[in-house]
Amino acid sequence: MRTLAIDIGGTKIAVGLVIDGQLTSREQFSTPVANNAEDFAQQILTRSQQWLELVDSIGVSTTGLVSKAGISAINPDTLAFPTPFPLADCLQQQSGKPVAMLNDAQAAAWYEYKMLDDKVDNMAFITVSTGVGGGIVINRQLHKGNVGLAGHIGHSVIDSQGPTCGCGQTGCVEAIASGTAIKKASDACFSPPISNIELFEIASHNPQAEAIIDRSANAIATLCCNLKATLDLDIIVLGGGIGLALGYLDRVNQLIRQRPQAFQISVVPAQGDYDACLLGAAYQFKD
Ligand SMILES: [Zn+2]
Prior knowledge:
12 strands, Nucleotidyltransferase, domain 5, about 25% strand, alpha/beta, 10 helices, 5-stranded mixed β-sheet, binds zinc ion
């Protein structure tokens, strides 16, 4: 199986050729400015011309909500095009190939699920980076929901007295645990400001840094236990720049072990790197 994989971000687009589950080549370019989906699809296909004749299918992962109508957003400012944006239909019409499209965090979740050594039935993927996102697999199928919202677990409210989130709610996991939230807390604490990487480096001997990271890890631990209670998951996979930062996963697992037994769940590190979304996009056709 040869699939053209396309990962659409707010600022850049990655395209690659996936043969039998392996990413064999990739390229990246700035997200084009386009007023309509026809132009946008045309520009992507032009940039992928060298692979187009070789592939059987096209798998797309994208920022935003993916529904039958196309791509839309919870926050329209994060998308570079008008919504709903019927990109999959346009790619299919112009290329003549079957096209499948997923939200990018859902695509990464699907890739991580496929990478698990022990096949499990129910799993969640959580990425903690600039924001907090994820995807959910139930009964070995990626759960997307009718409007594509499934897996936006960063917007679970866990503290009604907590900080305001960019989504408009108060006390979302994202507003407490994300890299952005950590940086905000760090900047209020340290002068001159330090990076999140430096914050993790000094945490072992600096109680203030330790407290900031612990607050984030505690929010993620709560999210994990909530997901276990709601969905009776078998495992959770944690990724993202913060999720995979020094000692973070161990903290989350330690905090989970302090919760009641019924809500405890094993959290393991993500296998994928920056190409998890591309591979997940292609893996829609893998079986
Ligand atoms: Zn939110």
